[in-house]
Task: structure prediction
Amino acid sequence: MGKKKRGHPDVEEILSRPWCYYCERDFEDLKLLISHQKAKHFKCDRCGRRLNTAGGLSVHLNQVHKETLSQVENALPNRQGLEVEIFGMEGIPQEVLEQHRNRIIQNFYQAQEDRRIATGNPPPGQSKNPRKKIKIETAEELLKRFAEYRAQRKAVLASGGSMDGVVQTGTAFPQQTFNQPGFPGQQPHGQAAYGFSADSLPARPSSGLVGAPGLPQRPTQAGFWGSSAQATASGDEIDQLIRMAEAGVKPQKRPEEGEEAGDGKGKKDKDKKGRMVYDDAEFSPEEKMAALPRYAYIPPVGT
Amino acid sequence: MAPATQYELSPPPGDAVSSIAFAPDSGTKLLVSSWDNKVYHYDITNGPEASSLVNTYEHRAPVLDVCFGADDNEAFTAGMDWTVNRLNLETGELTPLSKHTAPVRRVVYSKSHGILVSASWDSTLNLHNLNDPSSTPITIALPGKPQALAGSPSKIVVAMTGRIINIYDVDSIAELFRTGGTELKPWQQRESSLRYLTRSVSCMPNDAGYATSSIEGRVAVEWFEDTAESQARKYAFKCHRQAAPDGDGDIVYPVNALAFHSVHGTFASGGGDGTVALWDAEAKRRLKQYQKFPNNVAALAFSNDGKYLAVGVCPGFETGQNDYSGAGQTSVFIRELGENEAKGKGTK
Result:
């Protein structure tokens, strides 16, 4: 990869940039990062005071405004917690650091490849989908993958779903395409309120390949980059979250709760699991209350 | 920045809150209707220290809704006793305006035309022409039982069971009074975007559209304009849910109340989970989620100047409950909003 020119920094340079644990944004230097955190994540919304840490803000809110801080503002859904004490680059858990590193590396090479495709001059000896060739599976792996595929196929058929998506992607881990979390609040919907009937799979959310729509979905690059599959997968999820954030869409809750735009099957399962506190389709809580002796009104005769 | 505060009104209503309304002119005067047969009149000018209760108005039965009329001294109430009342806040005089054949769920007043619309569980609307006090109200049959009612400058939105939403044109109601007719066709009839029973409706202050919420932790935003572009803009999202303590799925709460901010056009939603969230309808963003209130949020109202948010908190009615009381557990919180607290982020 001897291509570092035209304003594309090399991977080491990108990796050395300080970045924000709460929103995954990276910055020129640590000072900028810290002022970003103070302004975006540790600012008191009651009086505008900028604190140094989430803990500091929590104490401030408690003492000055008698309120409790429940989450870090403007943070990615899985980073809103107050348990981790972050200041600049300090305090980021090891696995998150690794995840971030993997994501950066992955995005870097992805961008590099996208540029190559966009410019139309692939480097010699590389076909359109190099990963396929590079990935070498042992017999066990192959068998395992086949078993997984069959199980998945069964599941999809059982739920009445079409196999289209799976067949089309034709990659090693097609479910990755589907399991990317969708988010409520961004998908305009038509008259059919939710469109999650199992036999009409909704359109897939666009994957990470922004610049190259024609490119087949890549298999996981676990083997390729020497990272664990787990880390890569969660890296994808974070990517997705960041893209959502960039697109100006804020997920309402944690990603697991927001299946709306995603997989029809998953959505249905989720709905079954949601337990409604009140679920009468005909009578409102007020009507039920009205029927209680405590609130009953007996109209006087003759009025 | 102004020190924003939140405090509880004292004394609180004696039972569950059904509705909260701020006065059209004064930004500090509000009415709270309660299941304890009373309407409470508070004035919050003196802040948290002073007692803010000005008066209470006793009704025959639980009061299900209250709204202000032409000025700060006129209000209308809807009650379990099937009656729509005019309430004179100065004298406390209660004048029945019309009678339904079932409890009256909601009342809404249209300032521009001097019209009062009441919606009752007898599946009718009563239209009152307040410009002509001697006229008898016109009763309009609805295709379903109304659950929520809201007015914008030009429209009245009625959400019913069976996911039916009727939108009436206020001008055509005025026309009806003029011609003396008794038939009113909805300007539009729509199917609710939400799959479950509608809980609340609120109209955008700019008259462009409305938001609805359902018992199943969801809010939909739609626009009035009947063009493909406008209709394509509508969306719905989940909210007011909590991960179940046993980790198995979510607990889904009803979204009991919606209120648009008159200045910034953002809106607040209040749910059974005891939280209030602020949303930017245009940017499809959540602006804020307030810290949990001690109980179910039953009613919300912004003051007309947008400086205050009143939150009615009382126990929520849950499926299968066969005794309920909000006595002793009901409170009304006033939140003084920071200058930009309810402002959409996109406009910053």
Notes: Chain A touches chain B through 53 residues (CB under 8 Å). Confidence is low (pLDDT under 50) at residues 163-233, 250-271 of chain A. Residues 177 and 253 of chain A are 21 Å apart (CA to CA). The beta strands of chain A are 275-276.
